[in-house]
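WARN retry 2 of 3 for item q-0093 after timeout on previous attempt; input resubmitted unchanged.
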Amino acid sequence: MQFLPFFLLAAGVLVMLQPRTKRWQTRMTAYFRGNEQRIKQRANTFFLLGLAFVLAGFAYLFRLAG
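OK item q-0093 returned
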């Protein structure tokens, strides 16, 4: 239970940075056949999901420290 906040923080950062990788961009371009709106929508979804993980990690860390 002590490592859960750090795991959530690391997973959140990883999910937030995922859409910026070249491999992810080429795979999404192929999957959505170059539809930029859908690619940006998917990237924003990943960013929000990562942000939720980071915020949950900080909340757990705050509870452990308090």
